[in-house]
């Protein structure tokens, strides 16, 4: 008689990305649902595990994928790895974009300028043809060019069809084999969805909608017209900054009238409807209420941020609190309210909280399962305490405070400098700012008694095309508490300003001959005596602010000068040099 046998099926454990702050920056690993590290912090970056059991991680600037044991299934050889879609992932190396399968095999035979994730067994790719024109095509699941470079623009497939631009003033709807189903004589069209396509006859016209046959269904009348989702589309009737957003059906009937500063579709038959926080400055943002797609406003206008609904829940914020709401738009029962501004996601039995630019985990009752450390050692003598300053929902700074200096008065003075240089300033807690600011820090260099901190931030004026980055380096002698300046590196009386300026001038000229043309050559007049700088083990780095001598895209133009080039003027007997050199 054959005995009954039980086959044991082993499931991969639930693991969640988490990090530990160290003097070398954040090191990522994976915790279990009890908050204990199963894969120790060792990666520079780590992402959630995907449904195929793989997670994207980064080591020394190179990305790959690991399994639940922490073993590399896809080696970290890429500069970028995107999540898998339809069993394929887009990767990028020094040659360009490629496609790999779940075994890590490259299925494309060459690299491309760009490949977008797969949708309905097709991936948009782009590049320059033999005539030097930048065009688009589609790859199939095997990485073959099922539709070679031929389109001036291309959109993802939906329902077996995709919109492409053939040439100026001509678009087409194509099938998955590339067959043209219909052409359209318009200047601009957006993605096909639910049988309708937003269009403009000319660049100066308003938006309307056509059907698949090119018949105008909704005449041009909208300043903005978005794609349909579940039979509804968001449109804006206003041409100026005073928005008039509404929600229409396919007949053009307004289910939500065009009177709002913003409307966002949230899936699951819900939308966020926003009124201007400041009516005179609508670009500052909106305060949202929740409505259904039939046009019923379900809540008061009270939410600062609203996320997409998933399984009946949406992550929202009010002031400096983050929590879930249910389909009625009210706080979801039995779920916690997390202090801070951010988003929540359900990950298995845990709540993953990306709040105040930090990652933490809670169980569904609100009990803390994991919080990142707020204190880390530099060595056996010194530690860094991470302090948080968040007086307003739009102002957040993490700043360092040093512990362990023998001279307590010097330590208080140094910590005061670090706090001030980190932009911990008086900010009202009950006023809507017209900008947001986020600041953080990292240890740039630490040797002997010299501690170099990079304090960085980003100021974004609401409504602006982009914000303004901030950075400064603080050079602290942990023995004396001295905050060194550039002049302290050089011999007294030496003309370091001219010597360093000339070296930088030469570097600029050399870069210009190599095609780097983002410098404003007429604006470089040399460095200042108190020029922004930082030191490393082997070199002096001089940097400039954005726009100071180069275009914004250049960031902080930085010039590295090896010490051997300027050794004649370095004060090797001075306190600054002696703080980190033997």
From TrEMBL:
One Pfam family from the UniProt entry?
WG_beta_rep
**Which residue range or ranges hold the DUF3298 domain?**
487-564
Instruction: Tell me what organism the protein belongs to.
Output: Halalkalibacter kiskunsagensis
Q: Which InterPro entries match?
A: DUF3298, PdaC/RsiV-like_sf, WG_beta_rep
* Name by which UniProt lists this protein: WG repeat-containing protein
* Coiled-coil segments on the chain, per record: none
Q: Which Gene3D superfamilies match?
A: Fervidobacterium nodosum Rt17-B1 like, Heat-shock cognate protein, ATPase
